[in-house]
Amino acid sequence: MRINISIDPVIFRLLGIEFRWYSMAIMIAIVVAVWFIAREFRRKGIDDRDYGNVALIAIVSGVLGARLFHIMDDAGTYLNDPGRILDFQSGGLAIYGAVVGGFIGVAIACRIYNLPLLRVIDAVA
Prior knowledge:
By secondary structure, the chain is mainly α. The chain has helices spanning 21-43, 51-73, 75-80, 95-112, 117-124, and strands at residues 10-14, 17-20. 62% of the residues lie in helices and 7% in strands. Helix 2 runs antiparallel to helix 4.
């Protein structure tokens, strides 16, 4: 049995960059998560003065971790064509890498901004 989905994965193109449905879903998820975690920071009494910086570090490190895990998972392809490492348009993010990278980013940000790591992790969870 074969299921055929005829929806175009590309929502629109802008300046040579394709915006796809799954990337929109990821961006919405990040915005909602940032909003909920900011509320948890306040509810748990964590100083949220530097929350925006913590969130930015976590998001960037999560995306980098997701890409790095994907590259490691498909290392043969990227060793044969290293130019594709930076080619995000061809796909390639791994959710485990996003979780690990995001965690590392949160840990680093907590160290930089002198925030309680365990309470911050609890707020994120």
